[in-house]
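note to self: dont lose this again. the chain is below, predicted strucutre after it. 418 aa total, dont forget to put it in the shared folder this time
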Amino acid sequence: MTDSPTSNFKRLNSNFGSYLTVTAGYWTFTITDGAIRMLVVLYFHLLGYSPFEVAMLFLFYEFFGMVTNLVGGWLGARIGLNLTMHIGMGLQVIALLMLTVPDAWLSVVYVMFAQALSGIAKDLNKMSAKASVKTLTGDGGESRLFKYVAVLTGSKNALKGAGFFIGGLLLQWIGFRGALAVLAGMLLIVLLVTAILLPTGVGKMKSKPKFTQVFSKRPEINWLSAARFFLFGSRDVWFVVGLPVFLSGVLNWSHSQVGGFLALWVIGYGFVQASAPRLVRRSHHGRGPGGGTARGWAFLLALFPVGIALALGQGGDPATVLVIGLILFGIVFALNSAVHSYLILAYSDFDKVSMNVGFYYMANAGGRLTGTVLSGWVYQTQGLEGCLWWSAGFVLIAALLSFRLPEISAERSGKAIV
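---
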């Protein structure tokens, strides 16, 4: 017996309301995530940490993000995505408060441990929100899926940029500890509100999946995850440590200037990502992007770190080169990322989406981990130009791996979110 139009309408309204609640919680978490990253980079650079030491502060953040994504998808399938999302929020509150201790307590090991909690929190929250999209958006084929994924991911990145700016601004206004306390209080309030509003059991599988099921048996998901590893490594190898330290230490920009500039970049990146369905779809006649799209945008992306490195090597004005280069790099990178975010859901079966997304974001975190560590080491030994050449190499590897990605079949396109 089929559902009546009235019951379908109520179900869609309920799912859409839950989607908005998940998105609002994800937005707030993302602001704190961007802010804490900027606070740690700028404050510990101010305390005299070398670029490599600053990079090492994020080692556990990225490493435990990998572990969390591997385990988190399986956990979400067992206990529900709303519960894993709230566990992530709670851990982020603890991580923020841990850093409010006196400077004498802020050893490298202590900060790395606090960042480990933050990394676990971030990837639990991200995995839960992304996987929930496929569960909550209802019927509508690839069109609605691509749109909702792009809006969630793009708005998240725009707000992460806002977090960068908020972090730099709060550091300048009320100091390191005051900023952390404000962020922790804001996130705690949102945690309580979303816990009340969200239904229980979102994304929970009827049968308890075995842990071995987190490793994907679908080759397209494995190849996409490998490409994702190198795509995000290509960004973070120069963006995480090298770029903000260069702007602060070489160009003598203030904390608020560095935070504001990187914030505007990420906000713009987010808007492009949210617009990806309109920008990419034109060449697909209504069908979602596939492997060919991922390859084309990756090869195009590789041109920009090469161009920026060559311009800096030829003595171009660093501020002008970086501003223009970052804008162009950000536009193309955002489209690459949006296509990947769509493909992982389109390639996934409905009942395994949380585990596939967790596996995919484990690769994402692995790329960020590699890029973060290299960002500090390469900048310290080879400068910003060296970081850019490493970035170009990583993008080319991602492009080559994308040759193994299939197109989206008409059958799978129509069943993308059923």
